[in-house]
Amino acid sequence: MALLLAACHSTPTERPDTLVNLATVRTGPRVQADELDGAIRQQPDNTGLLARRASLRLAAGQPVAALHDVETALQVDDQDGDLYFLQARALRALGHLNEALAAARRAADAGFNSPELPLLEGETHLAARHYGAALASLDRTLRLDPDQPAALFYKGLAYAATADTVQAFDYLQAARARDPHQPEILHQLAFLLNAYRVPEEAATYATQGLRLDSTSGALHYDYGRQLELQGRPDSALFYYRRALVFDTTQYRADYRLALAASAHGQRPAAIIPHLQRALRRNPRLPGARALLAEALEGQHRLPEALRQYRMLVLENPSNQHWTFKVWKTNELVQASLPDSLRTTPRTYYHRAPSARPRPIEPLSPLPMR
């Protein structure tokens, strides 16, 4: 008994806790999709498994692989509306807008009636700039789900694209009321207010957005733009540079930096990459191509400058200044090439010969006196 009591009161031997090394833990939709590989190999005709893996691959940013899974599943069952909806999502992610809309129609024909379907159609029409069709699809979404923030957000973008500022602002505000922690909504509100020269209100939304997402290039641009509109250009340039650090696709930041650098009539070499990136994103930025052409010419990069001047002539066929710049720059380019590489013959300029003098008639002898 004494031994038993001693055993009961003794401290049990403790095992040290074994901590999991979090650096070695693999998770996320891509890993979950890979974990389905074995099951799908055993059941290659299981459309549920294929659809699950397609959804995970879409979430992991693998639309090509997702589309392959969906098409494999549709070969087994071509009457499943869920599969057509997944196909539409994958095609939309790949930028195949017309094909995505066709797949969405097949999903509806097969009985898929979730509010997500007209929402996808509306966003796809919006991407294709079919604003009337986008609004019609988004209205159908809101009839099924009146508090859908994404539908309200996309309606705001559609109205903004058609210059209906009041409606755009109202729908964006409604989306924000239902999803106040979405940085993209705050960005669009700030961008819209900056576009209509209301920088004080734009600053409020940009500040709120940056608190939620301090790495958003779009929100850094918005904040810089309101500073520029309020007469603080140096501070604005800081935020434009930060915008490009976080997101190199913010071409408006490139454009504003180039405009600031050339504001005093100079065309430094530093503005060339900014303008090149900006024009790749938006070829119609006011004055950007002219600035780029002049900067390239100033750096003696004449063939590149000539290409930009020729594009300016195509965009402005009646502008004699750009026509002259094409002729002049082309002459300089041709003059720098050896004869074998010239695309136009060398032009020689000869002084026009003066008129041949009339022969001097011999003087008749003077009469003898």
Describe this structure in words.
- This protein is mostly helical.
- It contains 20 helices and no strands.
- The chain has helices at residues 2-9, 29-35, 37-42, 47-59, 63-76, 81-93, 97-109, 116-127, 131-144, 149-161, 165-178, 183-195, 199-212, 217-229, 233-246, 251-261, 271-281, 288-298, 302-315, 320-335.
- Helix 7 (97-109) packs antiparallel against helix 8 (116-127), helix 13 (199-212) runs antiparallel to helix 14 and helix 14 packs antiparallel against helix 15 (233-246).
- The longest helix is centred in the C-terminal third of the chain and has 16 residues, at 320-335.
- Mean pLDDT is 87; it is low at 3-25 and 347-351.
Helical region count? 20
Query: What is the share of helical residues?
Result: 55-70%
Could you give the distance between the termini? Answer: 182 Å
Overall geometric form: globular
Which secondary-structure class do the elements indicate? mainly alpha
Order of helices and strands: HHHHHHHHHHHHHHHHHHHH
The major β-sheet equals: none
Rg, rounded, reads 34 Å
**Care to count the β-strands?**
0
Strand percentage lies at under 5%
Identify low-pLDDT runs: 3-25, 347-351
